[in-house]
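Protocol step 4 of 5: obtain the predicted structure for the target chain.
Materials: sequence only (see below). No template structures provided, no constraints applied. The aim of this step is simply to have a reference model before the mutagenesis design in step 5. Sequence pasted as it appears in the construct record:
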Amino acid sequence: MNTNKICKSIFNIALISALPFAALAQKPNWQNLDLKTDTTFGISTEKAYKELLKGKKSTKVIVAVNDGGVEAVHEDLKRIMWVNPKETAGNGKDDDNNGYIDDIHGWNFIGGAKGSVDHETLELTRLVRRDQARFANVTDAKVTEKDKKDYEAFKLLRSDLEQKLGEANQNLAGLNGFKIALDNVVKKIGKTNPTAEDFANFKPSTNPESRIQEVLSDELKKSTFAEFYDSQITEGVKYYTEQIEYNFNVGYDPRSIVGDNQNNETEKNYGNNDVTGPDAGHGTHVAGIIAADRTNKLGILGVADNVAIMGVRVTPNGDERDKDVANGIRYAVDNGAKVINMSFGKAYSWNKAVVNDAMKYAASKDVLIVQAAGNENKDIDTENNFPNHKDLDEKTIASWITVGASGPKDDETLKASFSNFGKTQVDVFAPGVKIYSSVPGSKYKNQNGTSMASPVVAGLAGLIRSYYPKLTAAQVKEIIVKSVSKVNHNVSYKKGENEDGETVSVPFSELCVSGGIVNTYNALKLAATYGSKSTAK
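Step 4 output (structure tokens):
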């Protein structure tokens, strides 16, 4: 699962992205607002409900959230969760004979009789572990000619892993050093929740204290000290600690929890029915963006008003496995989903073919897949981000839409700084900055990422399919792409993941196929023109 981060130079301090856009005082649900009416570059959802959908009937559509878990009892989600009509809850039987016992709200492919996987390694780590066993006693001098190509590839993988692990250790050390220095400054200030003014008035006695004063005086103009400390320090330490202990640790392997045969890619009937799992923060946030209850006067308003959310757990805190991704897609398709949201991706793939086959299967069953483009600020036309459709047939590509993340202002900052892009690999952009949505405990939180932009589009796809049920998946994608709000100006961003990179300014049309931001109002108007057989009921 991708994690967006930003870095600043202060003891090599590394800051995660919970608050890089904290200065934007955006309203909850800004993604649904209209640029002309609300001066915010949302997707005009509320305008569409008011002007186009009032009084019209719709058919319920199942949208699968293939993610890290969904809290089915959340106050804003419990009414709209999918309930398997052919399964009797809690009887320990596979009533519908689909191979999954008591799958009431969906299925968990990273769980088993022993519980559920939380932390996982990256795919890179797993590939190194696999090849390390093979080449344990091999050196440059001893490698055979037939193994030489694989051995050289292994060395590159190992080098990449060692570099990433080294960076994580360096960033953690820097962050811990900054935390100690910051705690000392706060103690000298004498307040538990100091303000920007407090830091500005502080008299530093060392260079580190001067740097802390500079950073906090600026950051606290955007957020409170408590918000900054929690999101940038506490969460930052947690993030890098987990990278070191789990993500980049060749010796860590939690798969025994699942109890499947890891080497059998055709195995399907494993897992458990716990669609929440140990950490449902990400998936619950995604589900709320798609379809949070629009009738209960609580929390937020989802994009779609008549969809059921199916929870399919395939992504841990680490990289998802191709086998689970493929089975998650097939499960969603076989159990009636018409849209699948996949807010995940990774730089390496163990078995791309098994995922490709599942993608083709979804396309053959008229299911639209919506995928997040990723959060590394890279061009995925030239750099790998899996899954991708670089070697798939046109029919499959026509039923698969990839989404980049945009911000609320129609200016050079429109491209979210973290968002991946690609003239051929990314289809559209959608709001993904400071999106307020549901999190476990019937709570709500702002989050950033293409993970948030993708469900905006999945919600739009579900909305179109519910009001125009005879449209095919390919037609829905075509409508979404053709109906974007075109962006006719340049956008600026820093090259690479580090904010110290070179600033470039490019036409927005160079970042994606459509050259624009999705628009609900435009899409529904266009959908109504796709023939009398596809008109709303």
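Step 4 remarks: The first strand starts at residue 5 and ends at 7. Residues 148-189 form the longest helix (42 residues).
Proceed to step 5.
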